[in-house]
Design a protein that fits this description.
With about 180 residues, the chain is α+β, with helices and mostly antiparallel strands. The chain contains seven helices and eight strands; from the N terminus they run E-E-H-E-E-H-H-E-E-E-E-H-H-H-H. Strands 1, 2, 3, 6 and 8 form a five-stranded antiparallel beta sheet that branches. Strands 5-4-7 form a three-stranded antiparallel beta sheet, with no helix packed on it.
């Protein structure tokens, strides 16, 4: 997904989803989802320059709060976001359901079941969310965002904003290898 050198672009986010209702049930069609916001750069220009990754710490089975996504939806979202009315509406309420009836979208959410240690890479503009966790095992994952390293100016700009994306105490404790991963060296 990333061509060439990359860096971790934000603090990793641990996520625990306990038993119960999360974002609705896939079986009865009331599943609610979201995107990670809109990009101002067309997908084909961004392709190969970023990646989002879920790392699982425990097995995630169907109906176990799995990451659920609508395959190919990032292409439709990109086109729809060009409409100022759609963009403004979704920036206020970033939720998607089957009832939204987005023109041209095959609403076919798929659960991504993974074994512990499994990794799932995705584009943040894919319509996604968790499914309800109907099992006693909590969903234990960590979200990572990676970005392709840019030219010297881009990397200097990234270093200037690093305290907005990483905990300052964590930055102080990093060894040289971790500093390289986040783009400090």
């Amino acid at each position: 997904m990333i061509d060439g050198s990359f860096r971790l672009s934000a603090e990793p986010i641990p996520v625990v989803t306990f038993f119960g209702k999360v974002c609705g049930c896939l079986k009865n069609g009331n599943w609610r989802s979201h995107t990670d916001g809109f990009s101002n750069t067309p997908f084909l220009e961004r392709e190969g320059s970023f990646a989002n990754a879920w790392l699982t710490f425990a097995d995630i089975e169907p109906s176990g709060g799995a990451m659920t996504a609508v395959p190919g939806s990032h292409y439709l979202i990109e086109k729809a976001a060009a409409d100022p009315q759609f963009r403004a509406e979704k920036e206020k309420n970033n939720a998607y359901t089957a009832k939204d009836n987005l023109d041209g979208l095959d609403w076919n959410p798929e659960e991504i079941a993974l074994k512990a240690g499994g990794v799932f890479f995705y584009d943040g503009q894919v319509i996604h969310s968790a499914s309800d966790n109907l099992r006693q095992q909590p969903r234990l994952v960590c979200l990572y965002n990676f970005t392709q390293k840019g030219n010297q100016e881009k990397e200097l700009n990234a270093r200037q904003t690093i305290h907005e994306r990483f905990n300052s105490d964590h930055l102080k404790m990093m060894d040289d290898q971790m500093k390289q991963l986040v783009g400090l060296v």
